[in-house]
Amino acid sequence: MSLRYALLAILRVGALSGYDLQKQFSLSVGHVWHAPDSQIYPELRKMEQEGLVEAEEQTRGERGRRRLYHVTDAGDRAFLDWMAAPLDYQRVRDPAHLRAAYLETTTPEAAREFLARHITVWSAELAQWEGELARIDALSNPMLVRRLAVTAEEDRERTIAYKRFAYEGLVERARGEIEWARRGLDLVDRVS
Amino acid sequence: MSLRYALLAILRVGALSGYDLQKQFSLSVGHVWHAPDSQIYPELRKMEQEGLVEAEEQTRGERGRRRLYHVTDAGDRAFLDWMAAPLDYQRVRDPAHLRAAYLETTTPEAAREFLARHITVWSAELAQWEGELARIDALSNPMLVRRLAVTAEEDRERTIAYKRFAYEGLVERARGEIEWARRGLDLVDRVS
DNA sequence: ATCTTCATGTAAATTGTTACATGATTTT
DNA sequence: AAAATCATGTAACAATTTACATGAAGAT
Prior knowledge:
Oligomer: homodimer
Strand order of the largest sheet of chain A: 1-3-2
Distance between the termini of chain A: 44 Å
Radius of gyration of chain A: 21 Å
Order of helices and strands of chain A: HEHHEEHHHHH
Number of strands of chain A: 3
Shape of chain A: elongated
Helix content of chain A: 55-70%
Number of domains of chain A: 2
Largest sheet of chain A: 3 strands, antiparallel
Number of helices of chain A: 8
Strand content of chain A: 5-15%
Largest interface: A-B, 67 and 67 residues
Structural class of chain A: mainly alpha
């Protein structure tokens, strides 16, 4: 149930419509927490009912409408409370390592394909996250720039440092997965 | 939906009751795919309906009963098909890295607590997995021994090697998380 | 005109979590 | 006799995924 906190994290920086939020989301927090728009719209409505956000109804042209969501004080508090509370860790659920433990039951070709795909998938993630790191350093990430604009001078360094720290962790994870799968490919060659 | 394949992987080695399966599960695949008994019993029933397993009804004492589940040919094929098919990767959903990206919004104390807990949680996982590696090497893991007993001589080395490979990956992951969180603690000290 | 982007959702199905519920058998 | 373990589930809820559905506004 971190979705609402991910949404609050973005909205706290400034009001957005569901649509814009969803785009910002996929460009920032979405790297760490995926959610499709069909989940975001209903969640915003629920958060509105619970008083965490307020919708400012706007019209667009003749009949177009949009709802601009603002974080309320209660929403702000909810976010800060969540940040200060212990994180609840979910149990591991890792289909790739599950399969890896049983690779002897399939053909070497299927095993190689699985590992090659693992490398492809994690390389894509790695590229994303390294790109994000570069954008953080170049201050060219729009979300980060928006955040820095509403951040007091003395807090800017920390803000950047933590964001960097988060992405570094993701980059290392991806590198680890890729190295592991490479070793797996060697292993397949060795034992088959 | 890897749960059923995790269950099949265990049952393929030999028939078990839901209760024993659940215990084996938590001692082996459970490290990679957690599932509570309240999920395992219904899943077994569903798999029975779909013809992947067959239940042998047994009595225990006067009125006690148990259902011993055997994998059917269809179940065996389903498992092998799954092993040979491309794995579907879920999108990232990582509350720890999500929170890490926003650590500047909380107090240094809360940030430290979060990171310390991250280290604790992953150290526990690490200990589990290193223990598992040691048990693989010592051939003292009961599940592995059962599996080797039904494995042809020439396939034993591969079986062990892949199991080792899977756990090595998990160990490295845990080490990475711990190192990352340690660096995070240094960072908190530096910026606050 | 038509294509893209803006804009907001509903519905159904699946998956997973938490709590509850029950009772037999074996061991101390 | 009590405690531990064996044994099997149901119920309610929460979270997630996938697919569907609709239409306005702005750009080419």
